Amino acid sequence: MRTSDFRFDLPDACIAQHPPPQRTDSRMMIIDCAAAEISHASILDFPNHLHADDLLVMNDTRVMPARLFGSWDDTGGALELLLVEAFADGVWDCMHKTRRRIALGQCFTSSGGRIRGRVHGFGESGRLHLHLTGDPDVMSALDAEGVVPLPPYIERTLSNDELMQLDRERYQTVFAREPGAVAAPTAGLHFSEALLDTIAKQGTRSATVTLHVGPGTFKPVSAENLETHEMHAEWYRVSEAAAVAIKETRARSGRVVAVGTTSVRTLESSVKAHGSVTACEGQSRLFVYPPYRFGAVDSMLTNFHLPESTLLMLVSAFAAHRMQTVDPERDADEGRQLVLRAYAEAIREHYRFYSYGDCMLLI
């Protein structure tokens, strides 16, 4: 398959710029992959599609307010940073915007003064490695001074304090626990505490995994040949408790229902590394595109994704996998065709797309 096979035209009006009034105000498209049928519901109907023997798997990563503003100590020139990942000994991998030529040893101070640092080295794709000093509690300092790093397709002005405060709350899942992401696992944004409580009361178990979503999640695939695309690395962890819960689910013939592509990639990364879902952690560069045999996931909830993105390719691969589970003779391209047909219908039916948009359940 080629990258251009996953191209579609999306009107700007379909891109959700704000969260819905309530988390559970989202629509949910349902794709029955085996039957190649599409229907429409609400996220409030999601529990009706779960069974008592199922296991709901969610990504508990927490989005850091990792967008930081400051200035260079020597010139006073403006600097904007996106703190992507912490390395050892206080060094962070960062994206940056500045007009000056950057050299080793140059120092900066954040606008609020709690974070200071110097250029420690240079990473891939033009990133900086910065040694941060000042407040030793970087997360606390970011909570005080940082801004939520929204996707590039969501338009914001820094002067709108009320909207920025809303983003701090709503661009975060209610089950977020582990700080480290610079983008939200957006399928999880639809869940309220009340919805999770409804799911638990009907007997469906749940487990969490962690994958710290990086900025590469928004990057379209640039290579036309999918086999030549190189995925960005994202840190993930499958806990012993999650691995045991999945094993027990399999033993009782229950389904593993993943919330979001990040949960899918976490579980499939574990399968790829160990042959089955095993407690582990590491850097995932797993690129899932058709054809692909999934080893951990039976159903998934996901948002509507960017054209030519790795996320759209993963969803297409999953649709094909579900089709072939029922009929091995079906072609892997049927999954892509079904998903793009669903996207076309979502556009006609005025679904909201991307991070703050509506969702799709593949069964």
Question: How is the secondary structure organized here?
Answer:
Blueprint: E1 27-32, E2 37-42, E3 55-59, E4 61-63, E5 67-72, E6 78-86, E7 91-97, E8 107-110, E9 115-122, E10 128-134, H1 138-145, H2 161-170, E11 178-181, H3 193-201, E12 205-211, E13 234-238, H4 240-251, E14 256-259, H5 261-274, E15 280-284, E16 299-303, H6 310-326, H7 333-348, E17 359-362
Parallel strand pairs: 1-17, 3-12, 3-14, 4-11, 14-16
Antiparallel strand pairs: 1-2, 5-6, 5-8, 6-7, 7-10, 8-9, 9-10, 12-13, 13-15, 16-17
Helix pairs in contact: 6-7
Description:
By secondary structure, this protein is α/β, with parallel strands linked by helices. The protein folds into two domains: 3-63 and 169-362, QueA-like; 67-145, QueA-like (Thrombin, subunit H, Beta Barrel). Helices cover 24% and strands 26% of the residues. It contains seven helices and 17 strands. The chain has a nine-stranded mixed beta sheet, covered by helices on one side. A six-stranded antiparallel beta barrel has the order 5-6-7-10-9-8. Strand 1 (27-32) and strand 2 form a beta hairpin. Helix 6 (310-326) packs across helix 7. The longest helix has 17 residues, at 310-326. The protein is globular and about 65 Å long. The two termini are 24 Å apart. The mean pLDDT is 95.
